[in-house]
Every structure is written in structure tokens, then in C-alpha cells.
Model the fold of this input.
Amino acid sequence: MAEKAKKAASSKGLLQSEELYRYILETSVYPREPEHLKEIRDVTADHPRAMMSTAPDAGQLMAMLLKLVNAKKTIEIGVFTGYSLLLTALTIPEDGQIMAIDVNRETYEIGLPVIKKAGVDHKINFIESEALSVLDQLLKDSENEGSFDYAFVDADKVNYWNYHERLMKLLKVGGIAVYDNTLWGGTVAMSEEQVPDHLRGGRQATLDLNRSLADDPRIQLSHVPLGDGITICWRIF
Ligand code: SAM
Ligand code: CA
Done:
């Protein structure tokens, strides 16, 4: 890129401060966040891994995407206590379905009473399993091909590309896959030496994923700096 264009791109400025983030949350996100989602945040707050929950501002965009594609049949990889799951369940229609996969049922059960209180548990098929084998199982039945409207992937970063390959068959053309944590704590733009040890494996997987997604002609893509980075992939063929 020419130097002038580079300067113009960076001077647009993303989030410059915590105050600006709070401003977005308090002005546009929290006032519209459904009460039951606030409650899931509350019941998760004391969990030692509470920061794994989907950021409410990213969730707000995901709800819009679900509405835009009229999502009815969806899949979620990585449930934790259920913030993104409840968000999806509240957004899709009454006869919508979510296949929700997580290796850990215990954390799902932390949020489950809130999901039940919200009256949307009938839309959820929770599967306690690692996700790759579930996707492979789905693909054994050709009826599942092109049948999903929406997928949210938020677990097991090293397998994101493997999930993507399978989701490109399971999603219909016009369906959307959203990948979370695609900026991996900002490490994707750090030099090797700056990256904390515990983030190295995920960083390499994220760098590889981001490059491969950018090269994938099957999708229209947007890499959005919300939360820890989300990448929206719209299957175009
Ligand atoms: N989307 C969730 C939310 O909004 O709260 C957060 C998900 S959290 C970042 C990641 C979850 O993935 C954890 O609950 C973990 O148990 C699960 N997980 C890790 N490896 C997995 C795998 N191979 N297959 C399925 N789930 C997995
Ligand atoms: Ca995440």
C-alpha cells in the first residue's frame, strides 16, 4: 500500500480508550440488551473464566446478522455459560433450532436456569462433545448439507480452519459463519518476541486462519474489531 493510503487507514482510529468503549456500551448496547442476557452476565460474573463470555457489543452485531439472514437453523461451537447461545435463542423465531456444542456441560448448566426462565430452551439441542466429530457426523447425512443459516464458532481456536471447511458445506449459500477471537488479544500484530507464551499456539492458528479466510473465494468477509475481533463470513457460493 502507498504510504499516504496507509496513513489515512490508520488515522481513522479504532477504539482509542476504555472511556470510548464504555460510551458505546452505555449509549447503544446496555439500554437495548435483553434483561435475560444481563442476567446471564450476572450469573457468570463470579466464574474464574467469566471473560470468556461473548462481549455484549459483539453480541448486538450477531443478533443483527441473525435477523438479516432470517436465521432459523443455527449451530454454535463453544457455549460456556450461554451468553451467545441465549442471544441466538432470543433472536431466532419460535420454531428455530440451535445445535449447541461444548465439551463442558457444567458451565452450560450455570446459565441454563436463565435460558429456561427466558422461555427459549425448547430451541436448543445441547450436545456435550468436542465439536469436530459432531460436524463430521452431520456431514455423513447429505440432507444436512446447505441446511444451516448461521454458525458461531467460539472454541478450540486451533481447529477453526477445520470447522470452516465443514461449515462451508453445512451452511447454505447466503448463510453466515462468525468466528470469534480473530485478533487473539492483539497478538496477531505483535512481533514474535512480544507474544506471551500462553498465547503463542492460538496466535499462530489465528494468523493462519486469517490468511486462509482472506484467500477463500467462497465467502464475502468482514474482520471486525469488536470484542477480541470477530470475522464474519457470508457464504456466497
Ligand atoms: N460463546 C460463549 C459465550 O458467549 O459465553 C463462550 C465460549 S468459551 C470462549 C469456549 C468454550 O468452548 C468453553 O466452554 C469450552 O468448554 C468449549 N470447548 C473447548 N474446546 C472445545 C471443543 N473441541 N469442542 C467443543 N467445545 C469446546
Ligand atoms: Ca470468545
Notes: Residues 18-235 form a domain with the Rossmann fold fold (CATH 3.40.50.150).
